[in-house]
Amino acid sequence: MKTSGYPSAVSSSPNVARRTARTILRLPHPATIKPPPETAGHIEAFLADAVSRLRVPAVGRTPVRFGIDLGTATIVLTAVDVNGQPVYWDFLRATVVRDGVVVDFQGAVDAVRALSVRAEAALACSIETAATAHPPAVPASDCRACRFVLQQAGIECRSLVDEVTAANALLKVRDGAVVDVGGGSTGVGVFHKGERVSLSDRAGGGHQLDLIVAGALGISITQAEEHKREHGADVASMLRPGIERIAESIRLQCGGTSPGMVHLAGGALRLPQADAVISHYLGWPVQAYNHAELITPFGIAVS
């Protein structure tokens, strides 16, 4: 449920009526999906390919798995093929989730329904099932609301995973930490020899950075998020203390000991040199990715 980093949305009301006759093609549900490549270079190539699939399906790739990311500022729908490669994605801006909790159930349903209608039209297929995700620290009762959102939108929830695990379904980190910086919180999973040894989540993320920008510039939080996204270089220096607070959250969740390479996912830290600020603060190696805001949404589809 992550935020920031997405381009300006094409105007569309989420209150789109779902078609009563589903389109054409029923896709098989594969027993397994081939994992995507593991190296940083291959991940960058995957994300570069993925970003070009915004509302434009990949030619020659059949979508077999779908993911829906219920984010703090955006709802994202993604699709991958049998090889785990990106086929399509779309998003709507919506403030229906706060700190991982669905606070506007009908608004979330409407957004998911609108995205699925657009995806089915673009892909000429029916979306019967999809996975979704939640921050690691969200109580089980609130997590179930994510499943209910999909069901109410006419989609069976085939998998409900935490966002860090979803991100690592794409990154395939065996040794190191996967950090998912969202709108309201920062989740950290530490991995050793391919096994996850810890998973946690602490308050503080992109929304707190927006508050800094809003206060400094005297603008609304919504305007601040947009300004941060479009003029990151102009506000990077004022946001350094906020980025360092996120770095401290990462340090605490790693028990104060370097886990190895720290991999940054999520759109909240798409700011110039944010990875360098975190690395300098921690004294640990940090791997950032272009279009990191797509790591978790596509990881959800792969999950």
The CATH architecture of the largest domain can be given as: 2-Layer Sandwich
Number of distinct helices:
10
Shape: globular
Q: How many runs of DSSP E, i.e. beta strands? A: 12
Radius of gyration: 18 Å
**What's the main sheet like?**
5 strands, mixed
Range of strand content? 15-25%
The SSE string, one letter per element, is HEEEEEHEHEHEEEHHHHEHEH
Low-confidence regions:
8-37
- How many angstroms does the end-to-end distance come to? 15 Å
**Average pLDDT number:** 88
Structural class: alpha/beta
Structure, described:
With 303 residues, the chain is of the alpha/beta class. It folds into 2 domains: 40-169 and 296-302, 2-Layer Sandwich (Nucleotidyltransferase, domain 5), CATH 3.30.420.40; 173-293, Nucleotidyltransferase, domain 5. 36% of the residues lie in helices and 22% in strands. It has 10 helices and 12 strands. It has helices at residues 40-51, 105-123, 140-152, 163-171, 206-217, 221-230, 232-235, 240-253, 274-282, 295-302; strands at residues 65-70, 74-80, 86-93, 97-98, 101-102, 129-134, 156-162, 176-181, 185-192, 195-203, 262-265, 286-287. A 5-stranded mixed sheet has the order 3-2-1-6-7, with helices on both faces. A hairpin with a 2-residue loop joins β9 (185-192) and β10 (195-203).
